[in-house]
Design goal:
alpha/beta; 26 strands; Rossmann fold; Luciferase, domain 3; 31% helix; GMP Synthetase, Chain A, domain 3
Amino acid sequence: MNNQASKYDLDLEKCSANYVPLSPTSLVRRSANAFPEHVALSYEGQQWTWREVLDRSRKLAGAFRQSGGGRDTTIAALCRNIPAAVELSYAVPMSGCVLNMINTRLDAQGVAFILDHGEAEFFIIDAALLDIAEAALEQCASQPQVILVGESSQKYTDYEVFIDGGKAIGADDLLPDDEWDSIALNYTSGTTGNPKGVVYHHRGAYLNALGNALEWSMPQHPRYLWTLPLFHCNGWCFPWTVAAKAGTNICLAAPVPEDVVDALLTEDVTHFCCAPIVLNMVLRECETRNLRLEKNVRVMLAGAAPPEALIARAEVVGFDITHVYGLTEVYGPTAISAWRTEWDDLPIEERARKKARQGVNYTVLEELNVRDGNTLEPCADNGEDIGEITFRGNVVMKGYLKNPKATREAFEGGYFRSGDLAVKHPDGHAEIKDRSKDIIISGGENISSIEVENIIYQHPDVLECAVVAAPHEKWGETPVAFIEKKPESNITEQELISFCRDRLAHFKCPTAVKFDLLPKTSTGKIQKYELRRRLEA
């Protein structure tokens, strides 16, 4: 082999003129330069332009640096979908720190675990969530600097005061030294016990932000309604997508159906994202009001496969549905049910069936495939052979924080293995047929059956238990507990549910309890598939 330098390498090195690290922070700067007076943020009658958002973000980034923040410093935040959550999405990456948006539905113990595991040095708290945040701080070993948003307190630093005290970083100082630097830390819902910390890099966040805009054909200046939690995969990277298109972030503290519909009518919303459960609640509100939208609003659905009937109802109201698929480990959505024009004239039920599939890879993802779980060979495109969905590309996580074993296992064989079982149709679209059995998806959030079982086993009257998913009209799925109680026990269903609600975030608690003998294999393993069969019957 010729080891001499190629003519295409000789004197053609990377330099500052021809190579810049990819980072979504550049998207914020670009919109502020191109459209400085366009509204970037809207919330409860207040508005901020892109120039103002960039100025505030630069000052906030400077304040973090002045307070000791820098590369790999974890900045945790417990915030609803308020303007501060969007600002943090811009400012923290500019500072070089790592943003850790915490699930606002967690209990204090869950928040405390994340603060400790992520080694948070700053903790931004929405005043509306102060009680649970303080309870978490009492339980955790970390002692982060607390910054309070929304009200003044002599005990904590005021968010606005913190920003005002910051010296704005330079407009040319917004990028990381390396695009592989970590930008965000997002915790899974603990499908095997404690949650795992998924680490994103600047490159992946930048690419997925552009991928969202590309796959959704977003126009310039979209008006994006925040119905999706910003803690969920950094809002599926949409804070940066909105920045890429110089759009308007319309904030809703919580996706209350009445408020969502009011916003649709008054805020000229063009796009929003949500789980099917949220869309179902919004549809009910629209149907109650007998509302048909004057112009179509584009809705991106993910979190669970949407029922075909839901998609059909949405079209009647005036929602244009795009179904996407992904996981925390791949920056949110990285697969899309890519629409084909030849499907336009299909009956509404058949169109809904097409849209409900998980689809094909995003343009910015190298590969999504369905592979044999043992050999990793691709399954046939026949719509029948079941395999595991795998990912490969630049929008796959760096790995799990401080968990090399789990990282190695996740990437074994050169692909990220989703744990979702699917088929691949002749048209190339994947369709999930089953999920990893023990994961329960309720309202778009993952629940670990093991975590719930561990709590139930703490009850003195419980002999054995197993928790499985049951279909639920409102939440998609909810946990149901099957219990073998001790012979002398008189425990009731409600007593056991209350026991769990005292020890778990309420959305993780069983909605029903069945007292019965548990089916087991010859080795004593509980047969959960048999319990699911009982529920179906």
